[in-house]
Each structure stands twice: as C-alpha cells, then as structure tokens.
Design a protein that fits this description.
Layout (H helix, E strand, L loop, with lengths): L18 H24 L2 H21 L4 H20 L8
Helix pairs in contact: 1-2, 2-3
Pfam family, one: DUF7144
InterPro entries: DUF7144
Keywords: Membrane, Transmembrane, Transmembrane helix
C-alpha cells in the first residue's frame, strides 16, 4: 500500500494535504473537465463558461501542487492558460461561414 509521504521534502505549507486528498481533487477536476469537454464538442452554451471556470480551478490546484512537482505543475498551468484562451476566443458562428 502506498504511503502518503512526499519524496522531496521542502518547506511546510499552510495548505499541505496528503496525496490521497490531492489525488481526489485532481480526479474530480478531471471528471468534470471530461463532462465539460463533451459539452463543448456538442456545442452546449453552458460548456464555454464552465470550461473557463474548470481550467481556472485547475490553475489554482496546480499552483498549490507546485512545491511537490514543479515541472509538471508549470506544464499543466500553461496548458490551462491555452485552454482558457482558446475557449474564450472561439467564435462558433465564424466556423460555419
């Protein structure tokens, strides 16, 4: 059974959670992102706003994860910024002209 220990020790943070808590946070955000992605593909109006909110929450979650896995967190934050930009600037009416 896996232990909830961090292999890289650093400064203790106020928001420190064990790996099980971080895992559930990321699983829930990922499941919601899959549902929102399906909504974006189907053209649902609610999905654009929700995608921006979920990507923003992912930025915050990965910023808090930064002390543990900095390179992975920076990569995911950059991808979230690209998602926010792409969803907010996409004009579906322009695609049909």
């Amino acid at each position: 059974m896996a232990e909830d220990e961090v292999f890289v020790r650093g400064v203790d943070y106020v928001y420190k959670f064990d790996f099980t808590t971080w895992g559930w946070i990321h699983i829930v955000l990922g499941a919601i992102a899959i549902i929102v992605g399906a909504g974006l593909i189907s053209g649902a109006g609610w999905a654009r706003f929700t995608a921006i909110v979920i990507a923003g929450l992912s930025v915050i979650a990965n910023f808090l994860w930064l002390p543990y896995y900095p390179w992975w967190s920076v990569l995911i934050i950059a991808l979230d910024v690209v998602v926010i930009w792409a969803v907010s600037t996409w004009n579906p009416r322009a695609d049909y002209r």
